[in-house]
Each structure stands twice: as structure tokens, then as C-alpha cells.
Amino acid sequence: MRACVIIFWLSLLAAVGAIEAAAQTPLTAKIGQHERKINLARRQALYSQRLAKAACFAARGINRGSHLAQIRTLARLIDLTVGILVSGSKSLGIEPEQSFDVVLKLADVQAVWDRTKTAVETVLTTPEDDEIDRSALINIYADNVHLLHAMRTAFGTLEAKYTPSGQPPALLSAIYVASRQRMLAQKMGKELCLIADGFEPDRSRALLAGTIALFESAQASLEQDLAELNMPELARSRIQVQAQSVRKIWISLKPAFALPEGTGIPTRPALETVARENQKLLHQLNAALSLYESARRWPTTEQ
Asked: Cys bridge to 122: 10, 28, 136, 173, which one at CB 3.0-4.6 A?
């Protein structure tokens, strides 16, 4: 199966898929195609966690229509990003991938995603008044761990191959941590919902505790290391203000992740709070990551 996917993709390397909606911003216009590829690969892990989270919340009957719409959009985004990373995109100025190692890792992503996508299509075609097919949900939940692993492996391969030389290592590390923190915010929302939905609850509780610890460690690391980054004070102050916004939302949201004693199952109000506020947290984390990425275009000393 894997070999078939690789052969199919290699035969399509000359075919570049354009994404009309993905117009270049002033920032993306300044960066090379390899950095764009790294950015796209970085987003895949986020998409995977958001999709599984949305499926779970839809199954729990929390804003079902909105979460199903999110699933549909996220599935399309995963399809597009995998295709662009392999076959390129004229509209984004990305050429077809020539590295066999990278294609191999992306083939692993495609193989797991193909399994997940079948279950996603079952969820999306469920009649509005019917319960979502349980076996399809379990397939999405179970494969999500493997999908995340495959996506992170592909990202690591792309990053190692294409990270530009001469970039400040401390800033690149901060970008990586900020990107991972964004994914972790969605992952812990997913894991909280999985506990409520009865999917491997003991394991999901352990994973949730670990994810929250990683999220908070990332936040502390970013705040502590900011003073050491070589960048103009204006850029540093903007990141500092944004970090405070992230911390403020997290402080208000964290109690919803506390599992009740006795049952260890999140309450309906807690799930509703997380479904609502987790999106706000994601918005602030996106803004923080954007500031770090923008800092790469700033001069490293005051002018």
C-alpha cells in the first residue's frame, strides 16, 4: 500500500495543484518556498488534533453543526496540504518535492489519513437527527495518535532538510515551541472530550495530564527565554504582550480541565466551556506564533 502511494505521488510530481483561496500575504511573499513547506507541514499536526476534537464534540452533541462544518474544512485542509507538500503549488510558489526521504514520510501521512478520511466521510454523511456512527468515531480517535506521529515525523524531516542556514537558533527554537504549544492546546481539548465520550478513559486521563503539563512548560519556556532572544525591543514587547493574553485565557480556562473527584468524567458545562474558550485560546496562540515568525524578518539589532 505504501509503495503504491509513493509511486502514485511520484508520477504526479509535475502536476501542481493551485489553491485560489491561499493568496500570498506580505509576510509569505518574503519567505522562500522551503519555509512555506515547513509552515504547511507544521500546520498539519494542528489540523489533525482539531479534527479529532471536533468529531468528539459533535458526538457529544455540543454545537454539532458547527463542529461538523469544522471537520469538513479541516479534512479539506489536510488533503490540500499533503498534496501541496508533494506536488507543489503555483499560487504559493512551491515546486514539487524532489527529496525521496520527504516523499516517503509524507506517504506515511497519506496512508494513515486515507484510513481516517473514510471514517470522517461516514461521520459527515450521518443524517442530522441520527447518532454519529460509533465505529467511525472510534476509528478517528484510534488513528489520530498515528496520524499525529506521522505528521510530526514528516515535519521533522522537512525541517531538518530545509531550515535556512544563518537563522538564530534561539528564535527557531521559540517558533518550534510556540507551534507545538498551539497543537497541544487542541490536543488537550480532544483528550478531555475523549474521556467524556468513554474512549480509553484511563489512558485519555493520563494523556490529558501530560498534555497540560507540556502546554504549561511551553508557556513558561517562551516567557522565560524571550529576554534572551536577539531582536529589536519593539518586536520583543509585542510578543510579551501577546504572551500575557495567552496566559490570561489559559488561567480562566484551566479549571474546566479539572476532572471531578469520584467520577473523573468532565461535566457538560466544562465541555461546553472548553468547546467555546479553546477556540479563543487558539486565536491567541496563532497570533503569538505569527509574531515569532515575523521576528525572523526583523533586523537582529536596533537601527
From this structure: 136
